[in-house]
Amino acid sequence: MNKTSIALIGFMASGKTTIGKALADYLGSEYKFIETDQIIIEDVGKSIPEIFAEEGEDKFREYEMFACKKASRLNRVIVSCGGGVVLNNVNIENLKKNCYIVLLQATVEEIYERALQDDLESRPLLNKLNPKVEIKKILNFRKPFYEKSADIIVDTTQKDYVSITQEILKKLNFI
Ligand code: S3P
Questions:
Q1: Which of 17, 115, 117, 161 could form a disulfide with 13 if both were Cys (CB 3.0 to 4.6 A apart)?
Q2: CB 8 within 8 A of CB 78
Q3: Ligand 1 centroid vs 1 CA: distance in angstroms?
Q4: Closest approach atom of ligand 1 to CA 13
């Protein structure tokens, strides 16, 4: 049977939330947009920066694993995944049970600009002295994890969200 859900992966500020909401809107009321970070915030009762500051990244990754497991049980959802879910293969194995995995690729420059717009404080891993250097370093390390996890890869450079959404749905044979 065809999978009914889509999980968006990619670096922080690569457009997962915007594209995820647009996909869910396009697919209609049967579809729901969810975020692994939001599941964690609701489960733990703290913001992401609070979890990092008070409990550390390892504990955050544990919460993230449970969030991916929860998300993977749902049909007809568009899941925006935290940028680090690819670091644990168990997350990807779980998500793949019900979801096609779509990688949104963006350049360091675009990620940096978008992260600045969102505000850096919401992302503890980028809330550093030189965010651009951090982005380059982390992206370099994670690139192979993103690429091997993806069923399809979509380059978002200089494309608007409508054409990205259409590209994803066509590549996955949803339309
Ligand atoms: C992280 C990405 C964040 C959030 C946390 C860690 C990462 O989510 O899960 O700050 O390791 O890349 P977004 O990708 O939605 O910003």
A1: 115
A2: yes
A3: 31
A4: 16
Distance 158 CA to ligand 1 centre (A): 23
* Ligand 1 atom nearest 17 alpha carbon: 15
Cα separation, 21 vs 166, whole angstroms: 13
